[in-house]
Structures are given as structure tokens and as C-alpha cells.
């Protein structure tokens, strides 16, 4: 019995500290909810003969803490999101169509769709895909041009990728040299 009083004394001290800390961060309604939840947790776990896992499984969860607005004023609502850019949406659709065509090895269609997507949303990664299409179509000069534009438009690319692209360009230039009489 003496152990139970000691536990309750410790639980009350912890509760008093928790309430004083929490009251600085939340409103009065949540103070009461936190206090009630904590007391239920202490009663369920500290005075029980059950194991800690059993006590934790049946204890009442503590509600999440929400900070009070400063100065008692209502919170400022977030502005509505901007409307989607129709050009960007069209570029995404064209890009998806191009990837699908590329997967089906329809290089000409993929090239056309990648070109259109790049016109609407000029992102350097699309140039890599354009170069790959030119390469698959056997157009080494077109692939080299797209790879060079890719390198120029993305100066911050990883060095490993840059070296890979430069190697690809050298291989394509060798192809051009062999193809010319």
C-alpha cells in the first residue's frame, strides 16, 4: 500500500510539471484534456499488476498538442494554391506519351512527343531523351546536337553523368567518321 502512495505522489509531481509545461503551449480546453488523459494513463499503468505492455495497450492516448495563435488572434489561413499551368499539364501528358512510345520502340513518335514537351517545358532532362531517340533512329548528328544542348543547359549535372554523355558523344562522332566516305 505504501508503494501505491509513493507511485501516486510521483505521478502527481510529473503531472504538475507536465501541466505547467503544456499550459504555456496550448489553450485551457486542451489543458484539461491533457490532464485527464495523463491521469488515466497513470492510473492504468502505475497502479496495475499487469505488465508494462498490457498497461500501455489499454492506456488512453494523449491528444496532440496544438499551439495557440499569438495574441489570441485566429490563425491566418493559407492562400489557395495557384491554378495549374495548362502548358505544364500538356507537357506532362506529352512526356508520358513519349515515354510510352519509347517503351514500344516507336522512336519517331517518341521523338516528336519529346520535342513538343520540350517546347512547352524546356527542361534539360528531356534533351537527353531527345538525343536517345535520335540515336535509336540512326541520326548520329541529331543525337550529338541534343547531347551537346543537354550538357550546355545543365552545367550543374553530376560529373559521372557528364562523363557518360561525353563518352556517348565521342562514340557517335566515331560513327559519323566511319559513315562518311
Q: How many domains, in number, for the residues?
A: 2
| Mean pLDDT rating | 76
Q: Using only CA atoms, what is the Rg?
A: 33 Å
Query: Residue ranges: pLDDT <50 for 5 or more in a row?
Result: 46-59
Taking the sheet with the most strands, its summary is:
none
Distance between the termini: 103 Å
Q: Can you write the helix and strand succession as a string?
A: HHHHHHHH
Please report the first level of CATH classification, the CATH class of the largest domain: Mainly Alpha
Summarize the structure.
With 181 residues, this protein is mostly helical. It is 71% helix and 0% strand. The longest helix has 22 residues, at 2-23.
Overview of the molecule:
By secondary structure, the protein is an all-alpha fold. The protein contains eight helices and no strands. α4 (about 85-105) runs antiparallel to α5 and α5 (about 105-120) runs antiparallel to α6 (about 125-135). It is elongated, with a radius of gyration of 33 Å. Residues about 45-60 have low confidence and may be disordered.
Amino acid at each position: 500500500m505504501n508503494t501505491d502512495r509513493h507511485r501516486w505522489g510521483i505521478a502527481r509531481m510529473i503531472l504538475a510539471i507536465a501541466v505547467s509545461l503544456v499550459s504555456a503551449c496550448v489553450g485551457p480546453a486542451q489543458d484539461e484534456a491533457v490532464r485527464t488523459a495523463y491521469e488515466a494513463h497513470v492510473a492504468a499503468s502505475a497502479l496495475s499488476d499487469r505488465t508494462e505492455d498490457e498497461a500501455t495497450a489499454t492506456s488512453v492516448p494523449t491528444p496532440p498538442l496544438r499551439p495557440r495563435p499569438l495574441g489570441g488572434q485566429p490563425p491566418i489561413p493559407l492562400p489557395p494554391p495557384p491554378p495549374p499551368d495548362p502548358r505544364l499539364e500538356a507537357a506532362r501528358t506529352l512526356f508520358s506519351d513519349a515515354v510510352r512510345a519509347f517503351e514500344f520502340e516507336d522512336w519517331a513518335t517518341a521523338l516528336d512527343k519529346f520535342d513538343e514537351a520540350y517546347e512547352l517545358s524546356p527542361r534539360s532532362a528531356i534533351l537527353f531523351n531527345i538525343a536517345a531517340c535520335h540515336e535509336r533512329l540512326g541520326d548520329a548528328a541529331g543525337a550529338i546536337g541534343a547531347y551537346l544542348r543537354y550538357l550546355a543547359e545543365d552545367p550543374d549535372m553530376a560529373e559521372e553523368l557528364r562523363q557518360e554523355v561525353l563518352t556517348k558523344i565521342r562514340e557517335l562522332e566515331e560513327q559519323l567518321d566511319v559513315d562518311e566516305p
